[in-house]
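Lecture notes, unit on protein representations.

Consider one protein chain, 352 amino acids long.
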Amino acid sequence: MPRAVDDVRNDRKNAVTKFCLAMEEHRRTEAGRVRTAREMVDYFFPRADGSANDRIFRHIPPEVRGPIISGWGVRGAKSAVRDNDEKVCQVVADALAAGDVDEAIFEEGVDARILVDWVPLGDWWTFWRTGKLTGVAIQKALAVGRELGLFDDRWFLLNLEGRGGKLKATDTLCDTLSKDQIIGWMRKVHESGDGSPAGLVAALGWETILSKTSQEALLFALDALARKVGFVSQHAAPTEMPGGPSEDIAVPDIPSLDAPRLDDASARAEKGADGGSIAEARAAMMSSLAEDTSGSASWPTAGTRAAPAQSGTMLSADEPPISFRDVEADTAQHDKPKAQPPPVPPSRTGAR
């Protein structure tokens, strides 16, 4: 009985399946080539010490894999369909060892649709994600995921971290924007009156976010998406950037965000008295302070400073030291109010 077109392992209508197919098709383009055809063969059909481990054909039914193998000319059409998993593994391994099938032919035979239809999607993700990813591939993955509804803007901002986790959410976005760009962004938020996550993203622009945010932060969000959709365990350790987080981030201008105009007062405030910038004046002042060591050189050291002279009468060696009780008693005596004379009675000049 022939198999229905949609009778595959992974539901083609599912958003996660659509995501994997889009990224696998992108991987086979020049711009999205993050894994080569040889890496595909080494991952899905690894060989070592004369043995092979089939991680792809055993998931594909005979009526689908048979025409692929027979199309390579290494097996007859009927035999390829009848072969069990062990025989298929042996035939493909022998063809690769003999050079009858190379990595380009292998990748072309197992096209993107067949690969995503049948292999476990978590296995495909491990293949695509392992190793270095380009910024184009990361941006493409997040754009496809957002378009397919795998996450919304609120989730994206909550799962955006930069500089090793020191920055989160909008702080991560501002980290790679110039002052003028941030001012323009806030102006658009004010004009729209929408400070929600969707409003913030709309004001800055999704394309701008993808192109200006650091690759480290976008990759953190992409790995969070993999845990969200079930590619990896929820408790899996976050993937580190190859070479560590980058501190050298280019920040080009955003054409859609106009720089604010400065009036004469603001322009004068940006300049020093001699025409130099405030930053230059501050740097010169700090440099002069750092170089001026004449004052500190004349200060006596702690061991050579003389004790300050004590005011008042010095105690002799025979006199006991004053205790706190004596001080308290003396203070209380001085603080006690003095007795006042009785009031003088008023004169009785009017009485006779």
